[in-house]
Design brief:
Elements (H helix, E strand, L loop, with lengths): L4 H17 L6 H5 L9 H12 L12 E10 L17 E9 L14 E8 L5 E7 L9 H10 L11 H10 L4 H9 L11 E2 L4 E4 L5 E10 L15 H10 L4 E9 L19 E12 L21 E3 L3 H24 L4
Antiparallel strand pairs: 1-2, 1-9, 2-3, 3-4, 5-7, 6-7, 6-10, 7-8, 8-9
Helix pairs in contact: 1-5, 3-8
């Protein structure tokens, strides 16, 4: 099948963005146990991901290039009626975070990867921890375990080009119409010139439990308060985003609004490939304030596994099976890089 040049470019762009979020599905097959004659394990799935994305001992298996930051969360009090979690009532909550670009290569140029991530840990005064890994895409390309595995296979680099085969990627998307929302987002997506002006999405749904025990289903997003500016067409600095963040923080703190979107009856709670309607109620839960940046991979976030199921009282996972699978994959990735780093004689 012949693919027009413009179509090839668009498909490869989708593949490049997909590589940045593929590891969100890296453990899903393990949970469902459906593929082939043998039950897949997190170890086997991470092996497959590394075979395709590259093996870099001692580094995170995705979002390998990043840097640690710290600051605090200032609650607005508006989410307190929705959840008993202390993070929504404590005036100032210490935060450790990490900005990163997608992919397994810790030596990639910052501007060469379209997807970015923000992972955060909130530590409240009641001893609770809340960790969340957020990404620039607001939705995933598929909604099932089978789809994630097929996506990984479709993104296998062609030995001749080092890139995914556009024909295989196009066939994959044709077989998965649920990818329409992701494809539309990727088509319209324009990377910003800074971590500071990027939006980050939690993608999966969670349950907020109020003091009366009533559940409120939400998705969350960090909305930047730094104005958007497009990434320049030509960037020569391989650490462009890291240097930009350091420069901005030298002039003062950076801010994001934590926006909660509430589901209504009929909204899918276990399907991260579908967006909820734009008119859903939103609650400004407070402001994330990032005050300082630390050396890449040597700061306070270095040894943190940003497992999305590390949740405080008052926040619970939805029935989305992807959440449990992400947790399994994150644990395998963390344990593997820790062993590798110990073997190399350095901390991960």
């Amino acid at each position: 099948m012949s693919i027009p040049l413009q179509g090839r470019a668009r498909t490869l762009r989708l593949a490049a963005i997909g590589l940045g979020v593929a590891s969100l599905g890296a453990g899903f097959a393990y949970v469902a146990g459906w593929i082939g004659p043998e039950r897949l394990t997190p170890q086997r799935i991470i092996d497959t991901f590394e075979d395709q994305a590259g093996h870099y001992p001692g580094y995170r298996k995705n979002h390998a290039k990043g840097l640690c930051v710290s600051g605090y969360f200032r609650s607005s009090g508006l989410a307190e009626p929705l959840s008993s979690a202390r993070v929504f009532s404590q005036p100032k909550v210490p935060v450790i975070g990490r900005f990163a670009i997608g992919g397994a290569n810790p030596f990639s140029a910052d501007a060469s990867v379209a997807t970015r991530s923000l992972a955060v840990q909130f530590s409240t005064d009641d001893g609770q921890r809340w960790r969340s890994g957020m990404n620039t895409p607001p939705v995933l390309a598929v909604s099932t375990v089978e789809g994630f595995y097929q996506q990984m296979l479709a993104m296998t680099p062609d030995p001749a080009t080092g890139k995914p085969d556009p024909a295989k990627m196009q066939a994959f998307f044709a077989q998965h119409p649920e990818s329409a929302a992701f494809r539309q987002w990727a088509k319209d997506y324009k990377p910003s010139d800074s971590f500071a002006s990027s939006s980050y999405h939690g993608i999966n749904a969670f349950r907020l439990m109020d003091a009366a025990g009533t559940a409120h289903y939400v998705r969350w997003q960090m909305v930047p308060q730094t104005p958007f500016a497009a990434l320049p067409a030509q960037v020569d600095d391989k650490e462009f985003l890291q240097h930009d963040l350091q420069q901005r923080l030298s002039q003062g703190p950076l801010h994001w609004k934590l926006m909660l979107t509430l589901a209504e009856p009929g909204d899918p709670l276990d399907d991260p490939s579908h967006l909820w309607p734009a008119g859903r109620r939103k609650v400004d839960a407070g402001t994330l304030v990032i005050e300082q940046v630390e050396a890449p991979e040597q700061g306070v976030c270095r040894d943190l596994n940003f497992d999305p199921l590390i949740l405080p009282r008052g926040i619970e996972p939805s029935n989305d099976p992807i959440l449990a699978a992400r947790s399994a994959a994150y644990a395998e990735s963390f344990n593997r890089r820790s062993r590798e780093a110990a073997h190399l004689g350095a901390k991960p």
